[in-house]
Amino acid sequence: MMGEEIIKLLAVDLGASSGRVMLGTYAGGIVAVEEIRRFPNGPVEADGQLYWDVQKLFQEMKQGILAAVKSHGPLQSISVDTWGVDYGFLDAEGELLYSPHHYRDQRMEGIALALETALPPEEQFRLTGNQSSPINTVYQLFADLQANPELTQNAKQLLMMPDLFNYMFSGTAVAEQTIWSTSGLLTPDSSAPSGEVLRRLELPAELIPRLVPAGTIIGELRPGLQEELGSGPLKVIAGASHDTASAVASIPYGLGGSTGGEGSAAFISCGTWSLVGLETAEPVLSAGACTYGFTNESCFGGTNRLLKNITGLWLLQETQRGWAEAGEPLSHQEAAELAEGLDRSAARIAVLDPNDPLFSTPGDMPMRIESYCIRTGQPVPQTRAEIIRTILESLAQSYAGTIRELEALTGRPVSCIHMVGGGIQNKLLCQLTADATGKEIIAGPVEASAIGNVLVQLTALGAIEVPEARAVVARSCAPVRYQPALFTIHSDQGGQV
Predict the structure, then answer these.
(1) Does residue 41 contact residue 15 with C-beta atoms inside 8 Å?
(2) How far apart are CA 273 and CA 298, in angstroms?
């Protein structure tokens, strides 16, 4: 143990719409995070395809490290978490072959049938625990190799996005298990590549680096970066590199009778995507889980996340983006106030399926909502308040349906739901979720991925033991509770986490 010293480290939390370099501080059994630098993120279009601007993102991360060193140094470690499924190729010299594709790129459309002929969706689920989806790494990799067979000669390693950034920092290439558990390329327990998947799709196993568990120290910051940033030998840690794995690692199970893994608490990680699920001791590979659309992903500490991916606040974010481009910007706070102040009894509100393919790509979201409502015979929301309320109520209804499916699959009644992530700042969404599910909502922390990232680093550094990580969160953060059908909230300590 490292005693009662103040430990400072950096968590880089990279989402699909923005990234942050966060300072994590641990002292006296309490963890705190502070935003050092925030920067936008989004796809770049070139020749009709969508990519991530990796070099720009890396420069932003370096600027964040530089600012943190100047204002808060010395620092002990750094770790990157990101969304799942996307990746980059390294060549024999360890250089990035080209910018990684964005998961909303459409190059998988033409190959899905061929892949699923060789490996049907139900077989993908049985062999990997992952639900089939064209955005999955396995589909993207199959598409890349079909379009560019020379990659089998030119590409020497495939690195998922957080592994890629950790490699750029350290020079060490590994495959961290929580991020690779989203790929559709591993066995259900995420312990090894699925030989059967690789064989059927003729994918080269050599592309997959050495698998390591979350919380592995993989090296130190490259000497050139140490000099450039004035940071000294920061340890580079492969943490719970999938942002949802980091978010779930921060859930303070035990509050209000919730017990997590073996108990009855579900979770919703709420952001651009919404991930609704619960922790289980082992992957759930039943026919029902496959039919309902659930997937299995690895957790920090070795448990399993049984969850469903739901298109989340992307619908609202894309709607707001369109309004802003039309010269009618609306802040998140203004959007929430409009929806909350709506006279629900006289409003035109529809129920959307957030995962309908109509909503999956960038575009005019209000027009797509109108098209969906016409197609499904529902009233078309006309005002901005009605559109926002339709989106939020639809998300809450989708969450509720998923919770009911989880209860049916596991035979375990869900007594409460932990909501974490930036989406919980929308208080109306939290209340609507309580109403739709009939469950108590325990909301917090907001900075779930960053806090989880920090906690995993602390275990790697030996500052805390794995079993006490969630107790640290419970001591450090004040949840906000929402009761079904009561449009009032209270905080355990008088404020939002």
Answers:
(1) yes
(2) 18
Please compute Rg for the chain using Cα positions: 22
Residues constituting the chain: 497
Output the average pLDDT for the chain.
Answer: 93
Mean pLDDT of all residues in 457-478: 94
pTM: 0.90
Task: Write the CB contacts of 125 (distance below 8 Å, at least 6 apart in sequence).
Answer: 131, 132, 285, 289, 290
- The full set of domains in the chain, from first to last, is 7-238 (3.30.420.40), 243-312+397-491 (3.30.420.40), 315-324+335-394 (no CATH)
Can you give the pLDDT at residue 491? 36
| Stretch 395-409: mean pLDDT | 97
Residue 417 CA: distances (Å) to CA of 260, 264, 444, 468 = 10, 9, 11, 21
Q: In angstroms, rounded to a whole number, what is the distance separating the alpha carbons of residues 396 and 430? A: 8
Q: What are phi and psi of 280, to 5 degrees?
A: -130, 160
Catalytic residues, by residue number, are 243
First to last CA, the chain: 28
